[in-house]
Design goal:
CATH topology: Rossmann fold
Oligomer: single chain
Number of strands: 9
Strand order of the largest sheet: 5-4-3-6-7-8-9
Number of helices: 7
Number of domains: 1
Order of helices and strands: HHHEEHEHEHEEHEEE
Strand content: 15-25%
Distance between the termini: 35 Å
Radius of gyration: 17 Å
Length: 274
Amino acid sequence: MSHNTSHNQCPVEFRAARFALSLHRAAHLLPAWRSIAAPVLYGILTYAPLAASEDNDAYSAVRADMVEHLKDYARVQDLDGEQLDPEVLAAMNQVPRHQFVPEGLRDHAYENRPLPIGYGQTISQPYIVALMTDLLNVDDDDVVLEVGTGSGYQAAVLAELAKYVYSIEIIEPLAEQATKRLQQLGYDNVTTRIGDGYHGWEEQAPFDAIMVTAGAENVPPPLVRQLKPGGRMVIPVSSTPFTQHLLLLEKTPQGTVETRQLLPVRFVPLTGDH
């Protein structure tokens, strides 16, 4: 599932600015998705059986439309002609997002909004998935750690680009559902486990890239230690009790860490015993 074309990486500042407006708009979408399934946001949502033929027929066109929307949005920003990495867009076009949302929300699967997946958790909006994936600059020989499996959608996107993905989820039912879903969809280069992602996955470290998909109070030191020299980490971190910012960490070949604060975001909190 990996791609062999080298990445054409644009400056992080362009990437952050390009998506800042979309995140601002996303904040106003939150009431909309809450109204879709507010009564079951903290409960168990029903997922339909996976069906490859259904994906190929009914959803491939709308998924392609979503990708075109991502491309058009990047063009509208007009930041020196910088665009999303074509390999990231190809991965977004490959992964059937509707298979990762509850059955009753499938009609909304390719809209640019987060959706509830049960247990107080959400699947991130496509812009955020694309942004965070793009920032990691994943190559086809990279081993990636994801903290916060959720539905498994972000892990699937990463698996389209990386050699292998290890993903940790602290909520047991979500971890079990995501594991089954990823296996059924053929993502044999993803391994999931139940646990506290704050502490990383020491047995499989070091990692070429680390993505955290929940808001942390600080950058977990175990994750920094498990990042290879030359590696990147993307993580939302609380700057005040009411705000989070997306951070990009890069570990230099000498082992020091350079951190950039990119833009405001809103994620569910990183939970666990830490």
